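Sample intake sheet
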Amino acid sequence: MKAYLCNGIFEEYPYYIDDANVGFFIQEIDGKNVVNKYIYPDDSIKYELDNQLVDLYDLFRDLLCKNTAQYYKEVVSLPVWVQCAGQDSDCDISADMFSDWILKADIPNLYRHLYLVDCQFLIGTVQNLLCAMEDAFINYYKTISTIELDESCKKLTDPNGTIMILSADATRVSSYIETYFTKAYSILDIMCKICYEMQYRRTEFESYEKLKSTEVLWGKRKKLQINETINTIYEKCDFISHIEAIRNEIVHNGTWERNPKIFVRLENYIEAERFMLFPDMEQGYLSTVKNRKHFFFLNVKVNDILPGIHLEFKRRLLNTLSEIKRIYFKYDEDNERHELLKR
């Protein structure tokens, strides 16, 4: 089984890695129909996150439907377009058709169901973004370690020197990092929408309306009760500022480096390490002088810090989901459902 190591080199292992001396690794599991093709230390947190996000679907249901049994009685009779139109590519219904059917449909609590589906769509978006982050994270280590390097290139430096790869492969590896941070920031945006819908929940369903959070993005988090809660994505800290700074640089200025490079460090002409560099940061922001924001003096390697970023972001998101329950809801044991806390 292949193992993609933190140093950007891959090795073959005939067994599951259980050795602390190996450090961080991503192991690719052989075989067909493998549920978890890639494993790495502490990856179980993704299952905890998924469970918490599934619970969030139920929280919205309890928030909007006082009678759970009645909700399920109604939902089994809903036409497919209520759940899928305007959201899924396998539902070939036009915007005009959807608008017309909403006006003509005689469906109990139609507008309430439409609103609930729209709120739950936000949760599905977070799940998809997490999958995209996971894919980018794994592919960074997998791709950087499997790029073919012409042996003659190693002779361009001394036996223990370092060479640079500037190629389409380097750009592709860089794009995984760019995708990672843009998806992480998108989760910040969507989580603000979710919390906003809970905090300012809709109570009247006389028509099909826009979500109250339509214009809400990360920049409006100060309006949320959960804002600045410690150990969550809302805590004011350098870690979240790093996510913001890197994402903004990628989105607004295209990249974090003019020419993406993979560095290959040699030991006696044998590859000992492959890595990319992370830009210098100061107190959560890119080190900047006027127009120059891409300094690499500190020699911080993406390989070394990305596992910590990946785990920390997921831990904060997991804590955020727990805090949402604590801040916005109370559990009614008699009726086995959550009720919105009145504040």
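Comment: The chain has one domain: 2-77+109-340. DSSP finds eight helices and 13 strands in the chain.
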